[in-house]
Amino acid sequence: MINKNILDKTKKKLIILNTLVVGVLFLIFSMFIYGYFYNLTYKEVDKGLYRQFDMITKKTKEEFRYPIKSGNMAIGPQGHITYILKNGKVVYGYENDRANYIRPYEYYDKVKNGITSYKYGGHNFRELKQTQGEYTLEIIKVVDVEVGLLKQLVFVLLIGMMLSLGVVYLTSRFLTQKSLEPIEASWENQVLFVQDASHELRTPLAIIFSKIEGIIKRPESTVDDEMKNLTIVMKEARRLRKLVSDLLKLTKEDAIVTINKSTFNLEELVKEILVDYRDIASLQDKVVNFNSKLRNINIYCDREKIKQLLIILIDNAIKYTNPEGRIDVILSESMHSINIIIKDNGIGIKEDEIKNIFNRFYRSNSLRGKDIEGSGVGLSIAKTIISNLRGNIEVESKIREGTSFYVNIPK
User: Fold this and answer.
1) CB within 8 A of 307, min separation 6: which ones?
2) Half-sphere exposure of 309 (CA within 13 A, CB side)
3) Cβ atoms < 10 Å from Cβ of 213
4) Where are its TM segments located (predicted)?
5) Residue 58 belongs to some domain of the structure
6) Domain end residue (candidates: 129, 148, 167)
7) Which of 233, 303, 349, 408 could form an SS bridge with 337, CB 3.0 to 4.6 Å?
8) Number of domains in the chain
9) Closest among 343, 356, 357 to 406, alpha carbons compared
10) What is the tens place of the pLDDT at every residue in 378-406?
11) pLDDT confidence tier of residue 103, bands split at 50, 70 and 90
C-alpha cells in the first residue's frame, strides 16, 4: 500500500538528525560547563599564588637586591612551595634531593615566566614564576586534587552525554513515529481513496459498455426494442455523473483554504431547501417537518457550505426512510453554537457500523441488496465541511427505529 522504504528512510534521517542536533547542543553545553569550572578552579589557585607572591616580595624586598644565604623550603598558608633562585641555583628553598620531587631543576629553563601548569613524577603542578635580574622567584602549588575533580567532571559529563544521547535517540524514535503517523495514514487513505473511486467508477462504466455493446450487436433493433437497455444506460450515466460530482466536491473540501463567511437567514435557507425535498418526499408518501427554536435567525457563516451540508443530510434522511415515514429538521441554539438536528424514523444504522459511516465509499452491508442509490461519499463530504467550519457532528441511531444527526456550528 505505501512505499515502506521511503518512510523508513525518512524516519532514520529524522532520528539521526534529531540525535545529532541534541548531541551537538549537549557537547557545547558540556564544554561551557567544563570551561566555567576550569576557570573557576584555577582562578582561585592563581589568586593564592599571587597572594603568596605579594607576601614574599614584601618580606624579601632587600634580599632581591643582595645575595641571600640558602635556607629551608618555605611553605605558604595554602600549601604553596616557594623558591628563590640566583642564576638558576636555589638560594632559598630545598637544599636536598627532594627538590627534584617538586620540579627537576634541569626543567628550570622550560618553565616560562607567569602562570604555568605542568606534570612531573605523576603529580600536577601550577607555578608562578617571576624573574628580576639574576634572581627568580618561583611559587608552586600541587593541584592533584583540582585536576582530579576536573577529571571527575569530564567523566560525569561524558556519562551524561552518553545517557542523554540514548534517551534522545529513543525519544526521537518515538516522536518521529508519532509525527509520521498522520502522514502514513493520509497516504494510506489516499491509496484507498483511489482504489475505492476506481472500483465505484468501474461498475457503472462496465454496465454502460456491456449494454451499448449489446445494442451494437443488434443493429436491426429499434429504439423501442432497446428502451430497457437505454434506460439502464441512462441510469448508470446519471449515477456516474453524480459520483464524479461528489468526488469533485470532496476533493474541493479537502483542499479548502478559506471560508467565505457572510450574514444570512438560516430559517429562510432551510425553507428554500425543503421546498424541493417536500415534493420528493410527498411522491414517496413521506413527510418533512421543520421546526425552528432560534432566537436570532441571522447567523454569520459560509452559506453555501451550510446549504451543501443540509442537502446531504436531508437527502440521506429521505433516501433511507420507508414510505409513510417522517423526517424532522430542527434548529436551535446554545450560548456558543447553532444546533441543527436532522431526524428520521427510517431503517437506522447498526451500532457497529456507526463509526464507519463517515468513511469514503462506505455503505452498510444491509443496503447492498437494496435498490437504494448512493456512492457512500455524501457523509464524507458532510464531515469535511463540518471540520472546515470548526464544528462538530454526532450520530445516534437504532436499527429499524431511525437515525438522528446532531450538527453544532460555532456562532
Assistant:
1) 269, 273
2) 29
3) 9
4) 14-37, 153-171
5) yes
6) 148
7) 408
8) 2
9) 343
10) 888 888 889 888 899 999 998 888 999 99
11) low
Q: Count of residues for the chain?
A: 411
Mean pLDDT of 209-220: 85
> What pLDDT was estimated at residue 96?
42
Cell 627538590 sits on residue: 99
Helix, strand or coil for residue 310? helix
pLDDT at 282: 87
Portion of the chain with pLDDT greater than 70, in percent? 80
Task: For residue range 22-60, list pLDDT tens digits in order.
Answer: 888 888 998 999 999 988 888 888 888 888 888 777 765
| CA distances for 328 relative to 321, 322, 378, 391, angstroms | 12, 14, 19, 21
CATH of the domain at 131: 3.30.450
Q: Is the pLDDT of residue 100 over 60?
A: no
Decide: 374 and 242 in contact? Cβ < 8 Å.
no
Contact 115, 46 (CB under 8 A): yes
Name the grid cell of 312. 446531504
Region 217-224: what's the mean pLDDT? 83
Whether 3 has a pLDDT exceeding 70, the answer reads no
Strand partners, 82: 74, 139
What is Dmax (Cα atoms) for the chain?
Answer: 142
Produce one character per residue of 181-190: b if its CB has 16 or more CB atoms within 10 Å, e if not.
eeeeeebeee
Q: Which domain holds residue 103?
A: 4-148
Q: Which three cell numbers stand for residue 358?
A: 463517515
DSSP 312-356: HHHHHHHHTS-TT-EEEEEEEE-SSEEEEEEEE-SS---GGGGGG
Residues 6 or more apart from 390 whose CB is under 8 A from it? Answer: 410
Provide the 8-state DSSP code for 357.
T
The residue to which cell 457550505 is assigned: 305
Residue 408 host element (H or E): strand 402-410
CATH of residue 389 = 3.30.565.10
